[in-house]
């Protein structure tokens, strides 16, 4: 299980990701939100993005499946973080203006992504936005690297995932990895809007 990996390597993971400059990605997400909007950071990892959203005066709920990452995220943000998976997390329906799922849904097996999106967007207001990112690939859909399983994504696969959901693609773009020595890795980024 990926959460076992993150429990064992939580400190190392935080050190490698917490200080990455995410400003370009935030600019695709936050302009869709009003002042004080309510955000769900789904799979928050180190708490890096939760902290940023709090500093921008958004109201933020966050969760992660790794107990060790939850503890570190609470330390980094001085904010309560829930210990949940995508499917165990619960909230009020239509509670959030935005859902941020940065490099987290990529750990969900491809055949479970539809159900996971369906579960998450129950909590998203109509007209609300969701950002998510996956490793970009056109060949292998699922891979395993260093004891972690990944679901890779491309435009065709993503349309299959969302085709029966009340979601429309607002923006879709490919970026290079922002981590040092990872410039050869590409990322699939998408902002979706929930429609009636």
Q: What would you say about this model in short?
A:
This is Class I SAM-dependent methyltransferase. By secondary structure, the protein is α/β, with parallel strands linked by helices.
Can you walk me through this structure?
This protein has 196 residues and is of the alpha/beta class. The protein has one domain: Vaccinia Virus protein VP39 (Rossmann fold, 3-Layer(aba) Sandwich), CATH 3.40.50.150. The protein contains 7 helices and 9 strands, in the order αααβαβαββαβββαββ. The strands form 2 sheets. A 7-stranded mixed beta sheet has the order 3-2-1-4-5-9-8. It has a two-stranded antiparallel ribbon with strand order 6-7. The longest helix has 12 residues. The radius of gyration is 15 Å and the shape is globular. The mean pLDDT is 91.
Tags for this entry?
alpha/beta, Rossmann fold, seven-stranded mixed beta sheet, two-stranded antiparallel ribbon, 7 helices, 31% helix, 30% strand, globular, transferase, methyltransferase activity
């Amino acid at each position: 299980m990926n959460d076992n990996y993150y429990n064992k390597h939580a400190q190392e993971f935080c050190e490698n990701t917490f200080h990455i400059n995410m400003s370009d990605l935030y600019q695709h997400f936050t302009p869709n939100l009003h002042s004080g909007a309510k955000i769900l950071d789904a799979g928050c990892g180190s708490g890096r993005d939760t902290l940023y959203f709090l500093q921008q005066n958004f109201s933020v709920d966050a969760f992660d499946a790794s107990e060790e990452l939850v503890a570190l995220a609470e330390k980094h943000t001085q904010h309560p973080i829930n210990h949940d998976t995508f499917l165990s997390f619960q909230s009020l329906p239509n509670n959030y203006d935005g859902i941020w799922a940065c490099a987290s849904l990529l750990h969900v097996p491809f055949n479970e992504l539809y159900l996971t999106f369906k579960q998450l967007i129950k909590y998203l207001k109509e007209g609300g936005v969701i950002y998510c990112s996956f490793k970009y690939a056109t060949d292998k859909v699922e891979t395993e690297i260093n004891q972690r399983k990944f679901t890779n994504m491309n435009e065709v696969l993503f349309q299959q995932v969302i085709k029966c959901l009340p979601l429309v693609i607002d923006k879709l773009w490919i970026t290079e990895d922002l981590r040092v020595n990872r410039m050869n890795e590409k990322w699939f980024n998408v902002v979706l809007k929930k429609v009636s």
